[in-house]
Amino acid sequence: MTSSRRTILIDTDTASDDAVALIMAIRSPRVDIAAITTVAGNVPVDQATRNALYTVELCGAKVPVYTGAAKPLLRELETAEWFHGLDGLSDHGFAPAARVAEPIHAVDAIIATVLANPGVEIITLGPLTNLAVAIAREPRIIANIARCVVMGGAPCCEGNVTPAAEFNIWVDPEAARIVFLSGLRIEMIGWQLSRFDAALQDADIKRIGALNTPLADFAIRCNSAAAAAYQVQTGEVGISLPDPIAMAILLDPRLSLSSSRHFVSIETNSEMTRGMTIVDRLGVTTDQRNHLVWKDVLASAVPSDICWELDIAGWKKALADSLR
Ligand SMILES: [Ca+2]
């Protein structure tokens, strides 16, 4: 049985929804986690590391955690405590983990893990800073990554941090551009998949609460600030969980009911549309009139797989199963 488990690496700006995604991966019989690497995003990177260590310990696991980039490649860090709470876990005063991070930088850990595990699958749950630096420093990793699932972007829809952009891409658009243009095939799980019926509703929350386990309790409690902020932000009620949805699809690709493959570019120049994920859904970038603007993408990128539709019942079942 052990041989059928896939090896994955998780890169995360660990706040509340990241923590739930970590639980899903740690508890999954489908994968072994070679490394968790942290990056600045929702919270400063040292807080992200503390949250990742706390979550790993809560699960009784021993996955190594490596601290990574403290800020985006070119820009100042903009965090999201307004959404996740000051500690990223809704400020319930969870006791610090006894474990500490490994004494190796996340970028070095990504390169070493990929080269030692050809065919590894990577999932990014935060800004793409670490992966961009790893690719720039050691391009050979690209050929050794079997899948790269990116929670990020707002394909052909509004963003969650600006009208144009989703948070993870917006925080470090230069890094996202490097990754999307690197030649790595990306499975893009946009934030819009976590809205509306995909968000946990009262009945879902009650069902999870009834599991009456420490993990179920933590998963709901650490998202209390996010649930309130989501309602302010969107007018929608519920706990929206973008990172766990991306993780659910990584673990079981059948939960993506509809996807298609397109070139994607990332806007880095405009302030208005900074971090916009521009999806060539109609395949017009090779037209003469677009060729000049898209030439960098066409020269170096491969098209990304954009997920359009989630199996909502399947996702909620996968979540509940991981919290038992
Ligand atoms: Ca995240």
Describe what this molecule looks like in 3D.
The protein has one domain (6-322): Inosine-uridine Nucleoside N-ribohydrolase, Chain A (Alpha-Beta Complex). It starts with 5 loop residues before the first strand and ends with a helix. With 324 residues, it is α/β, with parallel strands linked by helices. It has helices at 16-27, 45-58, 81-84, 106-116, 129-137, 141-144, 167-171, 173-180, 202-209, 214-221, 224-234, 242-251, 288-300, 312-322; strands at 6-12, 31-38, 65-67, 120-124, 145-151, 186-189, 256-262, 264-266, 277-279, 304-310. Strand 2, helix 2 and strand 3 (65-67) form a beta-alpha-beta unit. The chain binds calcium ion. Calcium ion binds next to loops.
Arithmetic mean pLDDT? 97
N/C terminus separation: 21 Å
Identify the CATH architecture.
Answer: Alpha-Beta Complex
User: Quick one: CATH superfamily?
Assistant: Ribonucleoside hydrolase-like
Question: What is the string of helix and strand elements?
Answer: EHEHEHHEHHEHHEHHHHEEEHEH
Q: Gyration radius, to the nearest Å?
A: 18 Å
How many helix segments? Answer: 14
Question: Helix- and strand-based class?
Answer: alpha/beta
Proportion of helical residues: 25-40%
Shape: globular
The level-1 CATH class: Alpha Beta
Sheet with the most strands: spatial strand order: 3-2-1-4-5-6-10-7
State the CATH topology. Answer: Inosine-uridine Nucleoside N-ribohydrolase, Chain A
Bound compounds: calcium ion
What's the domain count? 1
SS elements, strand count: 10
Main beta sheet strand tally, sense and closure: 8 strands, mixed
The portion of residues forming beta strands comes to 15-25%
Low-confidence stretches: none
